[in-house]
Amino acid sequence: MSSTQIEGHKWRFFRSGGFDQVALSSGDDLRNLAQLDPKLWTVLNCPTTGLEFDGRTAALLDSDGDGQIRVPEILAAVQWACSRVVDADLYFEEPGLPLDAIVDNDAEGAALKQTASRILSYLNKDPRSVLQVSDFADMSALFAPGNLNGDGIVTAALSSDPEVQTLLGEIIATQGPAADRSGTDGVSTDTLAAFFAQAASVVAWHEAGAADAASILPLGDSTAAAAQVFQQLRAKVDDYFMRCQLAAFDTRASEVLNPAPAVYSALATRVIASDDADVAALPLAAIAAEKVLPLRDGLNPAWAAAVQALHSTVIVPLLGKRDSLSATDWQAISEQLSAWLAWQSARPATDVHGLGVERLREILASTGQQQVAALIADDLTATGFVTHVEGVERLVRFQRDLVTLLQNFVTLSDFYRGQKKAIFQVGTLYLNQRSCELVLRVNDMARHVTMAPFSGCYLVYCQCERKGEAPMAIVAALTGGNVDELMVAGRNGIFYDRKGRDWRATVTKVVEQHVSLRQAFWSPYRRIASFVETQLRNFAASRDKDIEAKTTTGVSVSAPAPGVPAFDIAKFAGIFAAFGLAAGALGTALAAVMSSLFSLAWWQMPLVVAAVALVISGPAMTMAYMTLRRRNLGPLLDANSWAVNTRARINAPFGASMTGVASLPAGASRSLRDPFAEKKRPWKLWLVLLVIALALVAAWQLGFLPL
User: Fold this and answer.
1) Residue 69 β-bridge partners
2) What span, in angstroms and rounded, lies between the C-alpha atoms of 472 and 491?
3) What is the pLDDT of residues 476-502, one digit of tens each?
4) Using 50, 70 and 90 to split pLDDT, how confident is the model at 194?
5) 398 near 35, Cβ under 8 Å?
6) CA distances for 171 relative to 159, 325, 363, angstroms
7) pLDDT value at position 650?
């Protein structure tokens, strides 16, 4: 809808920067912002970074997360913000959101108000106090271990029952911690269910063992130790009896199944230890058909100790004392321990065994599972709290920051009214006895140096450094003062950011533009003076070089070297004659000019001087006027990914306010006596008097003065 179609709201505009800007000063302006034609907005989008604006607030405004804040996102934020408070004028007041300012006539509003009330209680604040952005800086204060936070994970701090607290600790110890939003270890629904399932399986496993104790525990409490020794030798003994059975099957196998002589030859050449791997790989005893396993003599030395442990721990308790073990005896032992081994293979793989079966029975018999589940259910009821905490934070941040953004987006009132800096102004640059207030951060130097010159501003790019901080690039617009003596390479200044921190600023690039008409007027004369100075310096340097060359070669009375011309008096006289002719011509021209000048009436002389000055300075002043007239903030912001919707001019008065030039304080006194000032010499006075005398003589000779 265009501005002529707006109904029901009277907009107020102010003119600044050469264009009309809407004045946003009341809640009614905010509520009707959607009716304002976007063509009347100053900016159509801006980046979320590189600004002197709260990054968290910018992220909340950037609903699609693309790093840009656009008009629809602004309108959506304003509409939501106005609908959530009783009076939208609150956004123009000092930062702080009172509890009674939140609208609670719908479900969302009621939830926000209830959440805000809980936040105040969690922060130990009076319910009548206001919420500030700083209250959300440390979320751990809102999601403390003793507070329900809606994540479905409970900590020991949520229960006052010591037994429940102990149970929670045991669950965490055996199942691993679940990360609570408070940062404390807790228990989730999954870990609770897994713990009790494992506890039940462990108890059931123990009960199964107790129910069949006669077969499972043939040696009673010593069964576990005996089974361990049995398992250690089981494969080796099985191997021995299988080899003996093969030897019985075929007598030719005996020789092959026993170690070959070459094996012993290899062992004979080195030191053999009792735990030697090659020795341990040999059979328990010599292989023969239907042979029993000796338990004392004839054993492989690497296994002798283990066989003795098997004899004392397993064989004697089950079969009685003996000197050898037959295959039948070994089968009987295996059958008696098979029930134990089968029971052990069914042992649940869980850390809850460490709690002991009696503690597990106690836990299963208690109501601990139901109590922890109830705590989790209570915590889950606070899921809405977490969601609405962000809503309350958003509302608090909008109350503080929304109008600030609008005054740099819908309008540029912060920039043009000068009461506070705009969000794109990052600080103040002090350089060459001036302070520059229009300073922007440069994120993409290549893009910036391409677009920024279209602003028509004299730009100074600087690299800023500060200990402990990442370097940053800035650009400052010089909009006042004299810039003729500004140098590029190595020129240093001081940059103060918005936090008051000082940075060392080094000039890296200058984009030269006219700064004022006064500078443009004098620029031709400065260029002429600079040209003359340069020529004189070059001439003096060349003469000095010639003199130095002549003095270093020494004086010689010999004849001139071949190829070196002798001094020609006639040529020398010709040079002097040429100088005389030039001086005469110059004098004639000067006399003609003076004659023409003195032929005018007295009131015409100033006009001639002004005309000459205009001819000399006119082109430069015309170019300066055209440059200053097109001086525009837009390209500077566009180079930083803004979309400026108007021509935001920086005219001469406003530009002068953006660049401060050094001046003595009001009321300051000054002594003009300089003890190191150069001594005055009268030659300047004599020169002026000589010029006046020559002018009077010329006027008398031309008849302009009576005798």
Assistant:
1) 46
2) 17
3) 998 876 665 555 667 899 999 999 999
4) very high
5) no
6) 15, 49, 11
7) 83
Q: Cα–Cα–Cα angle for 7, 12, 17, nearest 5°?
A: 130
β-sheet bridge partners, residue 46 = 69
From residue 162, alpha-carbon distances to 141, 157, 165, 169, 368 in Å are: 24, 10, 5, 11, 11
481 φ/ψ sector (left φ>0, alpha ψ -120 to 50, else beta) = left
**What mean pLDDT, rounded, does the chain reach?**
83
Q: What are phi and psi of 382, to 5 degrees?
A: -90, 15
* Rounded CA separation 396/550 (Å): 84
In 3D space, the residue among 108, 44, 119, 115 whose CA is nearest the CA of residue 81 turns out to be 108
Report the length, in residues, of the chain. 707
In whole angstroms, how far apart are CA 82 and each of 233, 253, 600?
Answer: 82, 98, 76
What is the 3-class SS of 548-601, one letter each residue? HHHHHHCCCCCCCCCCCCCCCHHHHHHHHHHHHHHHHHHHHHHHHHHHHHHCCC
Task: Give the separation between CA 241 and CA 559, rounded to whole angstroms.
Answer: 127
Compute the distance between CA of residue 72 and CA of residue 409 in angstroms, rounded to an integer.
12
Angle at the Cα of 576 from the Cα atoms of 575 and 578, rounded to 5 degrees: 65
pLDDT band of residue 360 (cuts 50, 70, 90) is very high
Question: 463 forms bridges with which residues in the sheet?
Answer: 473, 506
Question: Could you give the CA distance from residue 85 to residue 107 in angstroms, rounded to a whole number?
Answer: 14
d(CA 325, CA 311): 9
pTM, full prediction: 0.64
Torsion sign (Cα): 583, 588, 594, 598: positive
- pLDDT of 269: 81
53, 425 Cβ separation under 8 angstroms: no
pLDDT value, residue 2: 38
Separation of alpha carbons 404 and 413, rounded Å: 10
Residue 475 pLDDT class (50, 70, 90 cuts): very high
Cα-based angle 666, 486, 637 (whole degrees, multiple of 5): 90
Task: State yes or no: pLDDT of 37 exceeds 50.
Answer: yes
Contacts 24+ apart (CB under 8 A), 160-167: 161/371, 163/366, 163/368, 164/368, 164/371, 164/372, 164/375, 167/363, 167/366, 167/368, 167/371, 167/372
Contacts of 404 by beta carbon, 8 Å cutoff, 6+ apart: 53, 414, 423
Phi and psi at residue 623, to the nearest 5°: -65, -40
Q: How far is the C-alpha of 688 from the C-alpha of 707, rounded, in Å?
A: 23
Spatial distance between the Cα atoms of 78 and 406, rounded to a whole number of angstroms:
10
pLDDT tens-digit series, residues 211-270: 888 888 888 888 889 889 998 989 989 999 999 999 888 888 888 888 888 888 888 888
User: Angle formed by the axes of helices 604-629 and 517-553, to 10°?
Assistant: 100
